[in-house]
Automatic annotation (TrEMBL):
InterPro entries: TMEM70, TMEM70/TMEM186/TMEM223
Bilayer-spanning residue ranges: 42-60, 72-94
Protein source organism: Chaetorhynchus papuensis (pygmy drongo)
Chain spans, region Disordered: 1-24
Cellular component aspect of the GO annotation: mitochondrial membrane
Top-level lineage group: Eukaryota
Protein's name in the database: TMM70 protein
Assigned keywords, A-Z: Membrane, Transmembrane, Transmembrane helix
Amino acid sequence: QVTSFQGVAVRSLSTSSPHDHPEHGRLVYKGNLAKTVLGVKFFSYSTSIFNLFMMPYIMLKSGIGVESLLVQAAFYGLIGVFTFVTPVTLHILTKGYVIRLYYKDDMDTYTAITYNAILAEKATVFHQKDVKIPDITKMFTTFYAKTKSMLVNPTLFPNPQDYNHLMGYDKSSFFKFEELEEVKEAD
């Protein structure tokens, strides 16, 4: 495979697919909101840091230090909500959003890549048997991997069988005739 990189020929000797990861396996899912989630969280964090650095300047110039205690509490409360609560809420809502999902066939394991609190990618490895589907549909949860909630969009799986295997839909839930007879014999 020969590709051009800014006018320079680059030869790739890799025999694996560009969607394979040597450690995690085959790429089976890629979230389309990954850049949006990262951008919103980065914007929220940056405005919070800006608020923290500008707070002393605002307090000195506005004269808020000489107002009543009630006005001070309201002012600091409002700034605190935007400075601390918004980024924490955004993190709680988006921490389970899967940006990439890899699958290793030989071990039947998945690796979900999500963003952690400091905007770095975090890998969560789990087996297919660890996947639990919530009994009640939850807003930001498609499934639980062990105890961690994960959010994926089923329509973004290029191969629907990968989604079916992840969720356990490919396993037959019907009794086989032999299993039914064994239950009758046990009674």
